[in-house]
């Protein structure tokens, strides 16, 4: 497929690369459900622009007061953050039998978020997190803390355990 | 007679969502192919693709050359792939499952082996190298086009394509193809 | 129709009682002295318009990692100070996420006036990602001047979050 007017890019010089390119160019079909889902999102977006307030009788000041008190009581992530985003956490730990993750996103609960083996000694878990910054670490076989080598180390080390930080944008 | 991209864009801007559906159907497979090779698995590719479609819809008024809608949409999907990749932090050691690869009847075992090997090798490239290689040899773009699309300078693009090619060649030299 | 003023009055009357309720998680997982001390800091943070959840999470982290009550109290108190300095640097309109990210930056050695400068350069847009990237660069050993310059340049040019994240990637 080319979008360029004019000369096509030349073929790779050698046989191996030509075969690779040819294989990669072979078409595949993607499901129309992708289009359907995109249309749903678009329609939802079209509906929400121009929507009136749910309680038109509640003055703006009273609503803001209620919201600020409620938000102060209930533990919350920053409401201005945005919708949750998919995040993949992974650890290569071939000789292990269990791996879990603890962090700011699960109240540091060692049994809340297990990783699953995904082959070749790798463990993964897919999370949905609102935008923000999260400290976390892995617990391997219930006894050893290991930080995520693919993310920056956490700058603070209050408790002596290896720690990583992920930024979700 | 099929409508041109420009005509479908115009109808979409006039409020006709069916026209946008037509545009998505037209480009879904080709853009999905790039996303799949770039991200290494179908789930992430579909996310990038769907996200790209939605963004394209809302930004459609800024598509200055509707007759080149495909190239404009492709740029959006390339960026979505970068965002999805960063967020999901797909690095090396990505394994393409056979289900993610193009299906073909015939000598499945040997062909599948070759395809899997390509997928594995591709996944081991640095993302910038993989992107440059795909844009050059799969999307068949010129270097200056790739430079404009990615924001990198042309010499850097050439270097990335060369490094990607060298690494792929080395990784795949000993694999027999079907 | 109920009067909005009646609702607002009810909230004003009962709000303070709700605010002083202890976070259930602290009571369940920490010893009573540590739970009380952390709750006190949480209440103070709320009054000072600082984010409270990072304080709770810092306490729970210590609990999971087996830290003593004394160590947990010290860590939460230190974080409280960092949040306060971040709020002072970033201003009253900064979001919880920005203040939290700012606290992490201060902990990593980023001066408060650097955060202030960033606010000025990128006013009206979220600072969470720029501050986070700056913190990561510093933690990974990038010379501070280089880290500040890279982030300031992008902020001055109005670049999107993705461009800041790309600073962490190798070429």
The proportion of residues forming helix of chain B, as a percent range, comes to over 70%
How many strand elements of chain B?
A: 0
| CATH classification class of the domain at 1-90 in chain B | Mainly Alpha
Order of helices and strands of chain C: HHHHHHHHHH
How many helices of chain C?
Answer: 10
Mean pLDDT of chain C: 87
End-to-end Cα distance of chain B: 40 Å
Poorly predicted ranges of chain B (pLDDT <50, ≥5 residues)? 90-109
What fraction strand of chain B?
Answer: under 5%
N- and C-termini, Cα separation of chain C: 63 Å
Number of domains of chain C: 2
How would you describe the oligomerization state of the chains in this entry? Answer: heterotrimer
Uncertain runs of chain C: none
Instruction: Determine the structural class of chain B based on helices, strands and strand pairing.
Output: mainly alpha
**Biggest sheet descriptor of chain B:** none
**Percentage of residues in helical conformation of chain C:** over 70%
Series of H and E elements of chain B: HHHHHHHH
CATH superfamily caption of the domain at 1-90 in chain B = RNA polymerase sigma factor, region 2, helix turn helix motif
Quick recap:
Chain B has 178 residues and is mainly alpha-helical. Chain B has 8 helices and no strands.
Describe this structure in words.
The complex is a heterotrimer of chains A (169), B (178) and C (171). Chain A has 169 residues and is of the alpha+beta class. Chain A has a domain at 85-168: Sandwich (Immunoglobulin-like), CATH 2.60.40. Chain A is 24% helix and 25% strand. Chain A has three helices and seven strands, in the order H-H-H-E-E-E-E-E-E-E. In chain A, strands 2, 5, 6 and 7 form a four-stranded antiparallel beta sheet that branches. In chain A, strands 1-4-3 form a three-stranded antiparallel beta sheet, with no helix packed on it. The longest helix of chain A is centred in the N-terminal third of the chain and has 16 residues, at 33-48. The model of chain A is unreliable at 1-7, 50-61 and 70-80 (pLDDT under 50). In chain B, 71% of the residues lie in helices and 0% in strands. Chain B is built from eight helices and no strands. Chain B starts with a helix and ends in a 6-residue tail after the last helix. Chain B has a domain at 1-90: Orthogonal Bundle (Rna Polymerase Sigma Factor, Chain: A). With 171 residues, chain C is an all-alpha fold. Chain C has two domains: 1-91, no CATH class; 108-171. Helix content of chain C is 73%, strand content 0%. Chain C has helices at 4-19, 24-29, 32-47, 53-64, 69-90, 96-107, 112-121, 128-139, 144-156, 161-166. In chain C, helix 7 runs parallel beside helix 9 (144-156) and helix 8 runs antiparallel to helix 9. At the A-B interface, helix 1, helix 2 and strand 1 of A face helix 2, helix 3, helix 4, helix 5 and helix 6 of B.
């Amino acid at each position: 497929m080319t979008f360029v007017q004019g000369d096509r890019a030349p073929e790779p010089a050698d046989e191996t690369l030509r075969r690779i390119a040819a294989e990669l160019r072979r078409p595949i079909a993607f499901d129309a459900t992708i289009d359907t889902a995109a249309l749903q999102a678009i329609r939802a977006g079209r509906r929400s622009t121009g929507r009136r307030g749910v309680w038109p009788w509640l003055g703006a000041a009273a609503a803001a007061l209620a919201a600020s008190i409620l938000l102060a009581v209930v533990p919350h992530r920053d409401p201005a953050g945005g919708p949750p985003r998919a995040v993949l956490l992974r650890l290569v730990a071939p000789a292990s039998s269990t791996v879990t993750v603890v962090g700011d996103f699960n109240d540091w609960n060692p049994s809340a978020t297990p990783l699953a083996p995904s082959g070749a000694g790798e463990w993964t878990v897919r999370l949905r997190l609102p935008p923000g910054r999260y400290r976390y670490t892995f617990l391997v076989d219930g006894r050893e803390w290991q930080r995520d080598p693919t993310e920056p180390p956490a700058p603070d080390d209050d408790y002596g355990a290896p720690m990583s930080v992920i930024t979700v944008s | 007679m099929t409508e041109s991209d420009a005509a479908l864009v115009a109808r979409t801007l006039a409020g006709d969502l069916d026209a946008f559906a037509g545009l998505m159907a037209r480009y879904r497979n080709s853009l999905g192919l790039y996303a799949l090779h770039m991200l290494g698995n179908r789930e992430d590719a579909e996310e990038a693709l769907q996200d790209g479609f939605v963004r394209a819809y809302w930004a459609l008024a800024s598509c200055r050359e509707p007759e080149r809608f495909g190239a404009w949409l492709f740029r959006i999907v390339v960026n979505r792939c970068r965002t999805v990749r960063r967020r999901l932090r797909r690095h090396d050691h990505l394994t393409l499952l056979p289900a993610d690869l193009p299906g073909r009847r015939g000598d499945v075992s040997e062909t599948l082996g070759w395809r899997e090997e390509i997928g594995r090798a591709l996944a081991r490239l640095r993302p910038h190298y993989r992107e440059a290689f795909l844009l050059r040899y799969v999307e068949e773009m010129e270097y200056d086009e790739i430079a404009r699309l990615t924001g990198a300078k042309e010499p850097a693009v050439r270097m990335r394509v060369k490094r990607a090619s060298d690494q792929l060649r080395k990784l795949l030299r000993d694999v027999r193809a079907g | 129709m109920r009067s909005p003023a009646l609702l607002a009055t009810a909230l004003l009357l009962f709000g303070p009682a709700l605010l002083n309720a202890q976070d259930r998680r602290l009571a369940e997982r920490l010893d009573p002295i540590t739970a009380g001390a952390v709750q006190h800091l949480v209440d103070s943070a709320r009054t000072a318009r600082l984010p409270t959840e990072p304080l709770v999470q810092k306490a729970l982290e210590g609990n999971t990692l087996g830290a003593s009550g004394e160590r947990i109290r010290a860590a939460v108190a230190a974080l409280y100070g960092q949040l306060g300095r971040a709020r002072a640097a970033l201003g009253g309109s900064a979001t919880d996420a920005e203040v939290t990210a700012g606290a992490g930056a201060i902990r990593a050695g980023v001066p408060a006036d650097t955060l202030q400068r960033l606010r000025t350069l990128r006013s009206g847009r979220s600072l969470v990602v720029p501050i986070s990237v700056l913190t990561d660069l510093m933690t990974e050993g990038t010379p501070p001047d280089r880290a500040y310059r890279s982030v300031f340049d992008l902020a001055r040019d109005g670049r999107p979050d993705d461009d800041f994240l790309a600073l962490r990637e190798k070429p």
